[in-house]
Write a structure and sequence with these properties.
It is a single chain. The chain is an alpha+beta fold. The chain contains 12 helices and 12 strands. It has a 5-stranded antiparallel β-sheet. It is globular. The termini are far apart.
């Protein structure tokens, strides 16, 4: 690594002050520390958020599950509130990376990083979540802006994410065997107002699929999903899978997700 200084703010106000002054926030460190070790990233100052108690925790507020930004994947996976209200979200968290990643990685860190193959962004987008920051609230549809890019301003920190509770939901991930990231992941969520479908791993960033949403809004069945043609023209093609293969996976994983959601 290049030389850097490490700060451990004890309060959100201290962390916000450091971030505003240019310090790089350190959440779970699952991407940042690895990139620093490879000298791909060289922040001069880190602000470790792990000691800020107000950034962790899970609670139910009305028809929403609110999760603090520094809540670990393992805690989301094991939360009785999440398992009861949004079991698909608990299942997603339980299958991120390996045990070490789940013990260290955080919800806010993953969402702020917005890796195009990460799992959490698909849940945030499909559930129509609201991202709470040190300065405002951002709707999921406005938050993700492409590969590793979000609506966060410089120095702005995620404090919590509020997830509306759906009627039904499921997340299906086809894993890249080595990294355990999503080669293709599909999160399907049914609400009284309609269906939202978010796809990760298939393109330069997480996205909603309008065709699948429209079909499933009319008939929430695997057959309805199977009838939607998935355009491969904007999908990734690399050493792991062609664009056509990913397009087929989107269809198959959506069908499986709907079946899983219906089965409860």
């Amino acid at each position: 690594m290049y030389p850097f200084t490490l700060e451990r703010p004890a309060s959100l106000a201290d962390a916000a002050r450091l971030a505003a002054a240019g310090a790089k926030p350190l959440a779970g460190g699952q991407t940042l520390l690895a990139s620093m070790k490879l000298r791909l990233s060289s922040p001069e100052q880190l602000a470790d958020l792990s000691g800020i108690k107000e950034l962790s925790g899970i609670k139910r507020e009305g028809n929403n599950i609110v999760i603090g930004a520094m809540t670990r994947h393992l805690d989301v996976a094991n939360s009785a509130d999440v398992k009861s209200a949004i079991p698909a979200l608990a299942d997603l968290a339980a299958n991120i990376g390996d045990r070490q990643v789940r013990a260290m990685g955080t919800l806010g860190g993953s969402v702020a990083n917005n890796d195009p193959s990460a799992c959490y962004p698909s849940a945030v987008l499909a559930l129509g979540a609201t991202i709470h920051t040190t300065g405002r609230k951002i709707a999921a549809d406005d938050f993700f802006q492409g590969m590793f890019s979000t609506a966060l301003n410089e120095g702005e920190l995620i404090t919590a994410i509020s997830f509306p509770i759906p009627k039904r939901a499921a997340y299906m991930k086809f894993k890249q065997p080595a990294s355990r990231f999503a080669l293709v992941g599909v999160f399907v969520a049914q609400f009284d107002s309609g269906v939202r479908v978010a796809v990760t791993g298939a393109s330069s960033g997480v996205f909603r699929h309008a065709g699948l949403e429209a079909a499933l809004g009319k008939s929430f069945t695997p057959e309805a999903a199977a009838g939607v043609k998935i355009d491969a023209s904007d999908l990734n093609s690399d050493i792991h899978a062609t664009a056509a293969y990913r397009a087929n996976l989107i269809s198959v994983q959506t069908q499986r997700g709907v079946a899983k959601a219906l089965a409860g």
